[in-house]
Amino acid sequence: MDHMVFEVGVAVLLIALAGFLSAKLRFSVVPFYILAGMAVGPHAPHFGLIDLRFIHSAELINFMGRLGVIFLLFYLGLEFSVGRLAKAGKSIAIGGTIYIGINFTLGLLFGFLCGFPVLETLVIAGITTISSSAIVAKVLVDLKRTANPETEMILGIIMFEDVFLAVYLSILSGLLLSGATTLGGVLLSAGIALGYMLLVLIVGRLLVPVLNKILGVSSNEIFLTTIFAMLFMVAGFSETIHVAEAIGALLVGLVLAETKHMHRIEKAILPFRDFFGALFFFSFGLTIDPLSLKGNAVWLAIGAVVLTIIGNYTAGMLAGRSGKLSPKASSNVGLTIVSRGEFSIIMANLGAAGGLMAILQPFAAIYVLILAVLGPFLTKESAMVHRIVSKMIPMKARSSGDKLQ
Amino acid sequence: MSVIRETDLPGIGRKFLMDTEEGDRFIVIVHEDGKREMFCPSPVEPEELMRVVTLTDTEARQLGGIVGGMNYQPTALEKAEHTLDHLSIEWYKLRRGARAIGRSIGELKIRENTGTVVIASIESAHKQTISPGPEYVLGEGMTLVLAGERQNIQTLKRMLEVGEA
Lengths: 405, 165
Fold this sequence. Notes:
The complex is a heterodimer of chains A (405) and B (165).
Chain A lengths: L3 H22 L4 H10 L6 E2 L2 E2 L6 H22 L2 H32 L4 H12 L3 H10 L6 H30 L4 H32 L5 H21 L4 H13 L4 H25 L9 H27 L4 H10 L5 H12 L6 H21 L1 H11 L1 H11 L1
Antiparallel strand pairs in A: 1-2
Helix pairs in contact in A: 1-2, 2-11, 2-15, 3-10, 3-11, 4-5, 4-7, 4-12, 5-7, 5-14, 6-7, 7-8, 7-13, 7-14, 8-10, 9-10, 12-13, 12-15, 13-16, 14-15
Chain B lengths: L3 E6 L3 E7 L5 E7 L4 E6 L7 E7 L1 H11 L7 H6 L1 E3 L2 E7 L11 H4 L1 H5 L2 E6 L5 E3 L12 E7 H13 L3
């Protein structure tokens, strides 16, 4: 207990080092945070003051990681303006539906075929369906593809996935956290969750004028504490009625996005999201013993990776064609959205909170580690992949073209 | 004026696509962090985009000032606008789609309606009419030299373009 601050300091140092390493290698930072967390833990050595086992501080780090999820989802809600969504509406609906349709189905099939029970399968499908917005946006900027025509479609699909994530997380949290076993109980808890969400959104909307006035304070301190009070109160209360904290945070974000102080909130919250978000990925890694990563979890993850790449590539080609993109641009769509990261980990974490099979976490960790690294690589080399694939199946494309005539 | 297409790029910023009168395509990305990137189609492979330049926020403002002519007025334009108190002379090019195309100066009642006069019309590099009469018919691509009070010239330009004063 005495060295708590020091222990947390060591953890943050590891996180910072992982960050430096990822910047140096020009990779997404998420897998590095997870790896840093996995490298230490109860199995690691300790030298005097520097205790890499993090036994005393594990609980505290875990709690800060929980806050990280709250901030991540709150920020997602903030960014998510209803107006923007309505404007993008139709253009994102088609590509997004194709993407979710193919990949969510594949995820469910994968879970069932590997013999998982229903709830585990639902979590697995969630893990494998949601792309990493952060990695995708970063890769597009890094590769100077922001101006490309397919980029609009990619970001549209990502936006659609975010909506899907919000809805799916709330349904799943209702199922997992309520512990309901009968069909009636499940429906009831899902109904409560849905009603609660609507209530928060409607009341929140009515409160916007009041919030505008309250948040108009010039003091940054009062501003921030007010936001935090709302965020933690709603998120914490959600937990008591079996709606995931993350969903509560998302709802507060959605409500506050409608106020005129949206940008000030965003600016104020960003450092917290980054700091506690990093701790979340680290603490997720901390729960995984690298020595346990063998056998099933690894094979499952590799199988899921292969399935994800095929599913995303197909969805990209179809969505691209529906959006009248060139075949090359379409293949860019599929190969860009394969990156996985923060949201898959949040899904796996929800599974852990619901007391599901322990294999989900190492599975998600390996899956994300592979796709967070392989995804950006495939994006970069999309031209080459497209050449290879079109060489492998040129006959198919031509014969289907013949049929159309 | 060219039409500029704006698109939101959630998580990245905003995209502006402009097809210029000369037929060039030009794309500007304004990143959320303030960075600007400009792209144009690659001369080798028109389907691919080529990055022309990346600018910081400050540089983009500087460039905006230069392109907008805030520091330096091109000589052609300097000559095009002489202002004596409120009186000014302006060059105005009739673009495709302008309402006034095909109608005569008399028909449009330019002097009666706006209090300005057309002192010359440049039809092409070699052909021009000095002090065109009321029977003079306006055509696409002509450059009119307009004289009058600045405010009235604005009214006239609006009239020529959309048909109402």
